[in-house]
Design a protein that fits this description.
By secondary structure, this protein is of the alpha/beta class. The chain has two domains: 168 residues, P-loop containing nucleotide triphosphate hydrolases (Rossmann fold), CATH 3.40.50.300; 78 residues, no CATH class. 35% of the residues lie in helices and 23% in strands. The protein is built from ten helices and ten strands. Strands 6-7-8-3-9-10 form a six-stranded mixed beta sheet, sandwiched between helices. Strands 2-1-4-5 form a four-stranded antiparallel beta sheet, with helices on one face. β7, α6 and β8 form a beta-alpha-beta unit. α3 packs across α4, α3 runs parallel beside α5 and α4 packs across α5. 38% of the residues are buried.
Length: 266
């Protein structure tokens, strides 16, 4: 009898972020209905679905902007369902919104520098000049260079065109260096020339392999270029979850898009 030993199989990484039967109702409408899903580091998951499917609401439940009626949100196995959005941010969940979320009356550099300061846990001190914190200034400048906004560092955030404001918000998110990065339609309102900068940044984050990246996006070419996995929501339910090619070919997904084809109507 041959003495053959089975080779050990690789253990999949434990999920960083997980939802269990997550549910929220607005009056008689259930916007997210018992959604269970786990997200691991090193993967980019695109969350797609028709308008009104519950995608942004699901994001809001995970990041803490909304409180669930039922179910749980877990971060590294800890139940964070009742924690506020700022508490979740401090624990490592970073969120970029559909609408820009900036300090409009601060400069571009100050917006990023405050995020760097927050992550470094450096408090404002009237006896400490920012010019003495060259490390924080240089880090903020490097982030601005990565999004091609270094030449606008001294402009007010409110003076930037919409596309540049979106890029600035991504820089702020990167400055916080969260474990989970959540992008809600990051290319919305951007010109064709601006989109590649954001996609390259997100692709670079994914390539590092240590971050959990979630993306809500309507543009299917963006989803195809970035996603390792697609999760489809429809009427608040999770109706498909898996490899992008298989999910897009699934009859239930095609039905969810009224038979018009996922590729053209995400």
């Amino acid at each position: 009898m041959n003495n053959i030993r089975a080779l050990p199989t690789a253990t999949p990484p434990a999920p960083v972020l997980e939802t269990r039967d997550l549910t929220i109702r607005f009056g008689g409408h259930t916007a997210v209905n018992t959604v269970s899903c786990a997200f691991s580091p090193g993967h980019l998951t695109a969350i797609v679905g028709p308008n009104g499917a519950g995608k942004t609401t699901y994001f809001n439940l995970m990041s803490g902007q909304l409180k669930a009626n039922e179910g749980q949100v877990l971060l590294r196995g800890d139940d964070i369902t009742t924690l506020s959005a700022p508490s979740r941010t401090r624990r490592g969940i970073g969120r970029a919104f559909q609408l820009t979320n900036l300090f409009p009356n601060l400069t571009v550099h100050e917006n990023v520098r405050l995020a760097v300061q927050s992550r470094a846990r450096v408090g404002l001190d009237i006896f400490t000049l920012w010019s003495r914190r060259r490390d924080l200034i240089d880090e903020a400048d490097e982030l601005l260079r990565s999004i091609t906004l270094l030449d606008r560092r001294d402009a007010l955030a409110s003076a930037l065109p919409h596309g540049d404001q979106r890029k600035l918000e991504v820089a702020i998110l990167l400055a916080l260096d969260p474990d989970v990065l959540m992008f809600d339609e990051p290319t919305a309102g951007m010109s064709v020339d601006e989109v590649p900068v954001i996609l390259d940044l997100i692709h670079g984050i994914k390539a590092r392999g240590d971050k959990t990246v979630l993306l809500v996006e309507h543009k299917m070419d963006v989803v195809r270029s970035l996603a390792d996995r697609i999760v489809v929501l429809h009427n608040g339910y999770l109706v498909a979850d898996g490899d992008p090619a298989e999910v897009m070919a699934s009859p239930i997904v095609q039905d969810a898009y009224l038979g018009m084809g996922l590729a053209d109507h995400v």
